[in-house]
Protein: Elongation factor P
Organism: Flavobacterium suaedae
Amino acid sequence: MASTSDIRNGLCIRYNHDIYKIIEFLHVKPGKGPAFVRTKLKSLTTGKVLDNTFSAGHKIDDVRVETHKYQFLYAEGNDFHFMHTETYEQISLQKDILDAPDLLKEGENVMVIVNTENDMPLSVDMPPSVILEVTYAEPGVKGNTATNATKPATVETGATVNVPLFINEGDKIKIDTATGSYQERVKE
C-alpha cells in the first residue's frame, strides 16, 4: 500500500477494480480545509482517461510493474508486433494499448510496462519525441506568414501533423509523442 505522498507520473495503481496509470497530478493545499491530490488517470485496459481527487493521506493500492525495452517490428491490422531487445521474444499488442500508434515507425524502440503478478503487458511508453520524414505537404504560400501559420503535413507513418509553412516534402521533423505536435525541423 502507498499513500498520496507517493503519487508520481507513471505510477500504476489499482482503483475501481481496474489498473490505472497516473498521467498528471497536482498536490493542492488550499488556505482553508485539508490538502488533496488532483490526478488524471488512464485506464490500462480500456484507455479511458478520468479525473479523480484523493484526499491527503489516502491509501492507494499500487501495482508492481517492470519496464522492458522492446523494438517495434510491424503492424498487422490492430495488432502491433514487438520484439524484446535482449531475449528476442516477440509479443503482439492491441492498437488501443499504445499512446500514439500513428507515430510508431518500424525499428523504433519503446518501453513496455509489464505487470509482475501475471506478466501481462499493461502499456507502451513511446520515446519523448520521434523523427519522421514528411511524405506530403502542400507548398506554403509566400506572404502568408504574418502569424504562426501552419499547414497539415503527412509523415512516413501516415499520421497528419500541423507544421509551419516552410516545411516541405522530404524534410525530417521532430514530433512530440505526448501531444502529436511539431517541435522542430531536423538537419542531417
About this structure: The mean pLDDT is 87. The first strand starts at residue 2 and ends at 3. The chain has no helices and 16 strands. The CA atoms of residues 41 and 50 lie 5 Å apart.
